[in-house]
Amino acid sequence: MVEGGQFCGFLAGFTQNANFTNCPAGYVVYPINKFPSPGTYYAPPTGGVYHVKFTAMQFSGGSHFVSKSATATVTVTP
């Protein structure tokens, strides 16, 4: 998710909507079934400060749920 609450995270191989028109503050592409789970942030060409939040969730057995988040501030200079 990027600033403004837009969901702009895409699984590798399913990136047809990953562009700056749909995600003006940039987007993240991440692979499935990799540990640790890397993600690549594609910053927009417009200069500015962007706040990127990556959240991973795991569900197991219906009653077990784990959620972890990481946030980064990215400065883009045109």
Offer a quick outline of the entry:
The chain has one domain (3-76).
Describe the structure.
With 78 residues, the protein is mostly beta strands. Helices cover 0% and strands 46% of the residues. It has strands at 9-11, 27-30, 40-42, 48-60, 64-76. The protein has a 3-stranded mixed beta sheet, with no helix packed on it. The two termini are 22 Å apart. The mean pLDDT is 82.
Q: Characteristics of this structure?
A:
78 residues; mainly beta; 3-stranded mixed beta sheet; 46% strand; elongated
Share in β-strands: over 45%
Count of discrete domains: 1
- Main sheet: strand order: 1-2-3
How many beta-strand elements? 5
Low-confidence stretches: none
- Label the structural class: mainly beta
**What integer is the average pLDDT?**
82
Q: Tell me the Rg in angstroms.
A: 14 Å
| Helix-strand string | EEEEE
What's the helix and strand layout?
Layout: E1 9-11, E2 27-30, E3 40-42, E4 48-60, E5 64-76
Parallel strand pairs: 1-2
Antiparallel strand pairs: 2-3, 4-5
